Amino acid sequence: MKFTSQSVSALKAPAGKSYALIFDDATPGFGVKVSEGGSRQWVVQYRDGAGKSRRTTLGRVEVMPLPKARDAARDLLARVRLGDDPRAEKAAAKAKPVETFGELVPRYIAHAEGRLRPRSIEAARQHLNGHFKGLHGKPITEVKRADVATQLAAITKGSGPQAANRARAVLSAFFAWTVGEGIAEANPVSGSNRPAPAKARERVLSAPELVAVWKACEVDDFGRIVRLLILTGARREEVAALAWSELDLPAATWTLPGARSKNHRAHDVPLSRAALDILADVPHREGRDLLFGLRANGFSGFSRCKARLDTRSSVTGWTLHDLRRTAATGMAELGILPHVVEAVLNHVSGARAGVAGVYNRASYAAEKREALDLWAAHVEQLCREGEHRHA
Fold first, then answer.
1. pLDDT digits (tens, 9 = 90+) for 47-80
2. Strand segments (E) across 96-206
3. Which of 103, 174, 169 is nearest to 136 (CA)?
């Protein structure tokens, strides 16, 4: 018979038989296997290279529409004519040991290196090897949505909903990679509940908190990085991988290349006197262009150093990225216009977005320098006032 959606839906196995095979007149070899219980599966029947009759299934009728099944059958039969044996390949794939979740984590990390920022790589390692360690022994194809939900519930209970949100995002990216590599057929994170609504951070350090953090910074790489973050409003990874070749100290300018900026736009950061004083104390390491850290991608170990800084400063509940928001808020409170603050932060939004951004190509170099000089002077004044209060 010539298959139509209606004719296939009406097919039944003859009385007394466990199943029946019905083939399509329009596509020889393409058929439906109807069981006695009423289930229907698309099948393809062909002869292998030795002339032996073979049959393989494509999927359930209720899941795979007729046009898609017919196209799949034609593709499979074309492969047979080229010498392939789809059934044998399926059996070999089934017999092949399935890699476990834990075995695939190092491969994913290696894939992600060079594509993700170092901070994101570190977070992926922590979540996949820590929060999701319970999945390591499980074959990747056997990780189901219920397993994901169980893991996220445990993370929420132990570390809070926002931590679970971040872990869920890492896990989803990991499974998206496995699907893209042909290792898994689906992403079990898809459709799982988000532990908590995404919440934008609004933390801005108060003047006393900013002074406490500044004074708690030690004379080491991490302390210098934190103070530069306060003075420049730059992103953590931008300062962590700062290179001597990006600095023009006589011109008091740091040129961040587009390859290292979040929006892939080169960005000139005017350096205040306070920032230059910090850079003047950074020791030069022979043969190394990067100012901080010893690794190829700059400084690492933020979590440990940040925890010690919190203890020394007695300021908690903040992140290094909050320093960027604090600098932006502080400049605004000093009367710096919004479009200049955006230029300092290398934001392409607000006054610099859309059509306005296309026609307004001004770099605001003088305004940025004035803004950062004013902000640095304000931070230094706060620190001096803090010393007087404790004298």
1. 887 888 888 888 899 889 999 999 999 998 888 8
2. none
3. 103
Structure tokens at 293: 């850290």
Q: Which structure tokens are listed for 25?
A: 């007149």
The residue behind tokens 């869920």 is: 168
User: CB–CB of 367/340 below 8 Å?
Assistant: yes
Instruction: Give burial (CB, 10 Å; 0-12/13-18/19+) of 201.
Output: exposed
| Greatest distance between any 2 Cα atoms in the chain | 100
Which residue is it, tokens 């803090």?
386
Which helix (H) or strand (E) segment holds residue 35: the answer is strand 30-35
Q: Which whole-number Å values give the CA distances from 350 to 262, 339, 340, 343, 356, in the listed order?
A: 17, 7, 11, 11, 9
183 in Cβ contact with 140 (< 8 Å)? yes
Same domain for 321 and 375?
Answer: yes
State the Cα angle at 298 between 292 and 300, rounded to 5°. 95
The pLDDT value recorded for residue 390 is 56
- The neighbouring-strand residues paired with 100 are 139
Quote the domain boundaries for residue 28: 5-95
The count of C-alpha atoms lying within 13 angstroms of the C-alpha of 388, restricted to the half-sphere facing its C-beta, is 6
Q: What does pTM read for this prediction? A: 0.55
Query: Where are the alpha helices (H) located in 160-235, listed in sequence order?
Result: 161-180, 207-216, 221-232
What are the tens digits of pLDDT across the range 102-145?
A: 999 999 999 988 777 777 888 899 999 999 999 999 999 999 99
DSSP 8-class letter at 64? S
- For the chain, how far is it from start to end, CA to CA, in angstroms? 98
Phi-psi region at 192: left, alpha or beta (left = phi > 0; alpha = psi -120 to 50): beta
- 70 plus 108 within the same structural domain: no
Do 217 and 345 lie in one domain? The reply is yes
Residues composing the chain: 391
Last residue in a domain, options 95, 128, 152: 95
- 47, amino acid identity: R
Which tokens in the block code for residue 279?
């850079």
